[in-house]
Write a structure and sequence with these properties.
The radius of gyration is 14 Å and the shape is globular. With 124 residues, the protein is mainly beta. It has a single domain, classed as Jelly Rolls. Helix content is 4%, strand content 40%. The strands form 3 sheets. The chain has a 5-stranded antiparallel beta sheet with strand order 1-2-9-4-7. A 3-stranded antiparallel beta sheet has the order 6-5-8, with no helix packed on it. A hairpin with a 2-residue loop joins β5 and β6. The protein contains 1 helix and 10 strands. This is Cupin domain-containing protein. Keywords: Metal-binding. InterPro entries: Cupin_2 (IPR013096), GPI/OXD (IPR051610), RmlC-like_jellyroll (IPR014710), RmlC_Cupin_sf (IPR011051).
Length: 124
């Protein structure tokens, strides 16, 4: 059996990302699910650009602030305390607008933990 108590603040941010990303799942040794905590300042986006996954499902839980998500159907607003669910083959880009008043903190869960990401070009 394995159990972990992790203070997310103790997890070093992943280098070279457009916002603070703490790969909590990696520290916990998770193999079947990706788990990341993001702190996104106004004008920043969550690390991946506009993209989609073949098999991975994602759930964004907005702990604080208001997250925006660009989709082919238009922009979605995800308020504090709410979830945004992304099914496979569903393009999205999560970000915080430049004119936002605060940092957004969101926990993102992706399963299965696979590298099946593809860039999405809305003009293609």
């Amino acid at each position: 059996m394995g159990y972990h108590v992790i203070d997310p603040e103790s997890v070093e941010p992943t280098p070279d990302r457009p916002c603070v990303q703490r790969a909590v799942g990696d520290v916990a040794g998770l193999e079947n699910v990706a788990l990341n905590l993001y702190e996104v300042e106004p004008g920043e986006q969550i690390p991946l650009a506009y993209h989609y996954h073949d098999d991975q499902e994602e759930v964004f839980y907005v702990e604080s602030g208001e997250l925006r998500v660009e989709t082919p159907d238009g922009e979605r607003v995800v308020p504090e305390g709410h979830l945004f669910v992304v099914e496979p083959d569903s393009p999205q880009r999560a970000f915080v607008p430049e004119d936002a008043d605060e940092t957004v903190r969101t926990l993102v869960l992706g399963a299965p933990s696979v590298d099946d990401v593809h860039a999405y070009d809305p003009d293609a």
